[in-house]
């Protein structure tokens, strides 16, 4: 059996005195996909920050492509192949669309031209500045900016948050296309549990930093009790 | 009329001298947001490097100016790596206290190493004397400063607005965390940008000696002017800094010529008025 792409083992992460994630373990194969579900404050974004390198774990191991990366600086994790699409997109407002992609671009299959082919509206706005984009365009740009680093693992933190339903469908279709056609692994945090469970093969439900469910997405999708108890059922039309 | 033209050219040349020194400060203070009082000390390092290389070692003028930029870049990089980088996230007061401390250390060091007397710089014959343009005599050195400053302005605008290096700096200043997650080593990028700002300080210092003179109090004498042009220009805007340099150059020279009793106060009164009406400076974005 080959080593997994990413292996998280007994991870503990916290701010100040409090522990936000405790005893979390999971693994993803190359090209695999994982949905992380849970309520606000369950520790989902904290997990992403710890994987991207912006929070140092209290204890536990993170192995990525055979390297121990728990203490590795964020830019080195990116160069090893972890692409991060943060919650809220964090587009560089003083940079044009093209510059947002250029500063991150590396040699590999994902080129700036390919991003423009996938998201034609970004190409039309290539000379616009980051703060002159709609929410959907910002999200496309955040995804494109992570893709041009040519990652082996893509971290998507609430990519559909705050998007109008039609735009959210567009972005969701692109994410599905990216994960299906590429040998890239994905970890997805999403309030839209249905979309996340359809997209990802595996799923974890976090509750106060502890994985209360961890298994195949199909099994978790069938576990209505757990979804209601730990994720909550989103009422249509309510913002996340 | 000829007097007016001479005052105007003198003011513009003084503005370019200010810009040669302030251009680098508009990178470290304006763009990177580091309250860098030590910039004036790095300009003095450049001034002494050029003056000593020309006066004592007989170096050609342009080679000495290039060496001044290189030495100031090295000193700036050492200061950044050893001291300043620890305070990027600290308050402005802490940054000012540390860097003003460096200014006083530099004054004491210059007095000890070179001595307290004024230093002059000899320029080569092709920069000496005047040329006649129409009815007015203009000093060759002032024309050289204006040409050099224009070339510097254009190069910096291209560097910051149209290169990957410039885009990375703008990104890192806007969101350091996200920049790191794009695979960019922000600490190294900041060290490079700081070295560049320091090189420009050294360059400006070396070129300004002929007009401004040089003694160990140089950093204190010109620190205020440098801070004024960068803040009146608008933090982070090279164009604004340039406009403010020209404005203050002309106002200062014209003021001292036309109203000698109060001339020195004109630039302070102007700075106060501009910042009262536009706290973000001429070209700065509103906060």
TrEMBL record, chain A:
UniProt keyword annotation of ATP-binding present: yes
Domain ABC transporter, residue spans: 6-233
Record-level GO BP terms: L-amino acid transport
UniProt entry keywords in alphabetical sequence: Amino-acid transport, ATP-binding, Nucleotide-binding, Transport
Top-level taxon of the source organism: Bacteria
PROSITE patterns in alphabetical order: ABC_TRANSPORTER_1, ABC_TRANSPORTER_2
Gene3D superfamilies, A to Z: P-loop containing nucleotide triphosphate hydrolases (3.40.50.300)
Single GO molecular function: ATP binding
Pfam families per record: ABC_tran
SUPFAM superfamilies: P-loop containing nucleoside triphosphate hydrolases (SSF52540)
Family (UniProt): Belongs to the ABC transporter superfamily.
Function as written in the Swiss-Prot or TrEMBL entry: Involved in beta-(1-->2)glucan export. Transmembrane domains (TMD) form a pore in the inner membrane and the ATP-binding domain (NBD) is responsible for energy generation.
Protein name per its UniProtKB record: ABC transporter ATP-binding protein
TrEMBL record, chain B:
Pfam family, one: BPD_transp_2
Entry keywords, A to Z: Amino-acid transport, Cell membrane, Membrane, Transmembrane, Transmembrane helix, Transport
TM helices/strands, residue ranges: 12-31, 61-84, 96-115, 141-160, 186-207, 227-251, 258-277
Membrane topology: Multi-pass membrane protein
GO molecular function, one term: transmembrane transporter activity
UniProt-annotated location(s): Cell membrane
GO biological process, one term: amino acid transport
GO cellular component terms given for this protein: plasma membrane
Stored PANTHER family: ABC TRANSPORTER ATP-BINDING PROTEIN, BRANCHED-CHAIN AMINO ACID TRANSPORT SYSTEM PERMEASE PROTEIN LIVH
Family named by the database record: Belongs to the binding-protein-dependent transport system permease family. LivHM subfamily.
The name this protein goes by in its record: Branched-chain amino acid ABC transporter permease
Organism: Bradyrhizobium zhengyangense
